[in-house]
Design brief:
Distance between the termini: 28 Å
CATH topology of the largest domain: Jelly Rolls
Order of helices and strands: HHEEEEEHHHEHHEEHH
Oligomer: single chain
Strand content: 15-25%
CATH class of the largest domain: Mainly Beta
Number of domains: 2
CATH architecture of the largest domain: Sandwich
Length: about 240
């Protein structure tokens, strides 16, 4: 079931809401609101790109699969941005798997309309800044996965997701978190238990609640703040 967004009101996506009303109205003329359901595979590497999703609530995940036995998250995408942003440069092929991560909703814009608007006006500055921020997130995440302790990486991932959802509780299974961090479930259990014993989170089957945000930030590696700082520096958000 889909509906058309009302461009005269705030959409909930920070990129879209930073556009002047006239520019947002033309961009969203043929857009649709769709749901984000946990675990859905929206794209596989090599799939043609027909649209660009802008999450308004919930999150999407870009997942890399270096071989048949392993998957690991390359980037988290929430209401700060969009998936498929590289199509602004002319690409029409998915480079990585795109998976629904946390339930919510998204505004889906046709690829041709996105590319046309990304070549002009304020939207161009937003998209190009976000593209650079996405590259920064992917590169920092890759380095983080290589050198930082799992507990730190787990805290970093939980913070990134907490930033992008409404409220302190969000759906999350240990199996899924293992994919996001590139580790097996027993390792995830140890990392979650460590953060729970530190008073940062509580968890039950299928969900996590952040109860001490400052403590979770203290438990995370510096990569969380690096990624957040790069986004703040590169994407000039204002009220549209």
């Amino acid at each position: 079931m889909s509906a058309q967004p009302d461009p005269t009101t705030r959409t909930g996506n920070l990129l879209l809401d930073s556009l002047p009303l006239e520019e947002r109205t033309t961009l969203l003329a043929d857009a649709e609101i769709r749901s984000i359901s946990v675990g859905d595979i929206l794209l596989l590497p090599g799939d043609p790109l027909h649209s660009v999703p802008f999450p308004t609530e919930g999150t999407l995940s870009m997942v890399a699969q270096p071989d048949d036995s392993a998957e690991v998250e390359a980037a988290t995408i929430g209401n700060e941005g969009c998936a498929g942003v590289h199509s602004a440069l002319g690409s029409r092929i998915a480079s990585q798997q795109l998976v629904s991560q946390v339930a919510g909703s998204m505004i889906v814009v046709g690829i041709d309309s996105f590319a046309k608007h990304a070549a002009r006006g304020r939207f161009r500055a937003l998209v190009y800044g976000y593209l650079e921020a996405m590259v920064a997130q992917i590169s920092i995440t890759a380095a983080c996965n290589a050198v930082h302790h799992l507990n730190q990486r787990c805290a970093r991932w939980l913070l990134q997701t907490h930033d992008r959802v409404k409220g302190d509780t969000f759906g999350l299974t240990q199996e899924y978190l293992g994919v996001m961090l590139g580790v097996q479930r027993p390792s995830v259990s140890i990392a979650q238990r460590t953060l729970r014993e530190a008073g940062c989170i509580t968890f039950r089957r299928g969900s996590v609640t952040v109860i001490d945000r400052e403590g979770l930030e203290d438990s995370a590696c510096p990569c969380y703040e690096l990624i957040r700082s790069e986004y703040s520096r590169l994407v000039p958000l204002t009220a549209g």
